[in-house]
Structure to design on (163 residues):
């Protein structure tokens, strides 16, 4: 792991990292998060009974759009030509939560970690937005990078949590 922040020049000014000399490689990142809610709210989502429509379908599209717009949201991110964005949901009835997994891929000169994290974040916020009328106490949490592959730094996997 490098101990240097790459988004600053030698004078401490913010800069976009120059990836001109980096090799084009297959890159992938996976991120996850969750939205915890009241059991009744989760039941509405599961049964498709929400008056605003299919909450997870809308959240999936929002997550995909967010990954594609990541460089518009995070100032020093490179605009990327993503080749794949997948956003998946799992209903966790034991935890009263919707678990979110995003996978982003491309062949390029920089990684897609931020795109995967942004996809999860916006999908979670969309779930919150669509359900806030019935459950303002929902909690968006545990947004994290699970894995990344490709590039000069190689593969990386998050350590298993004991929590």
């Amino acid at each position: 792991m490098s101990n240097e922040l790459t988004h600053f020049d030698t004078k401490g000014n913010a800069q976009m990292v120059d990836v001109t000399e980096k090799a084009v490689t297959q890159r992938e990142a996976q991120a996850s998060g969750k939205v915890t809610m009241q059991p009744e709210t989760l039941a509405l989502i599961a049964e498709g009974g929400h008056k605003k429509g299919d909450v997870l379908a809308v959240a999936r599209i929002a997550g995909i759009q967010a990954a594609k717009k990541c460089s518009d949201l995070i100032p020093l991110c490179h605009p990327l030509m993503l080749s794949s964005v997948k956003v998946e949901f799992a209903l966790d009835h034991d935890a009263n939560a919707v678990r979110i997994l995003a996978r982003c891929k491309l062949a390029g000169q920089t990684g897609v970690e931020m795109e995967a994290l942004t996809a999860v974040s916006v999908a979670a916020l969309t779930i919150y937005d669509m359900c806030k009328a019935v459950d303002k106490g929902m909690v968006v949490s545990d947004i994290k990078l699970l894995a990344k592959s490709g590039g000069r730094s190689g593969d990386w996997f998050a350590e298993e949590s004991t929590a």
Notes: The beta strands are 25-36, 84-92, 97-108, 139-149, 156-157.
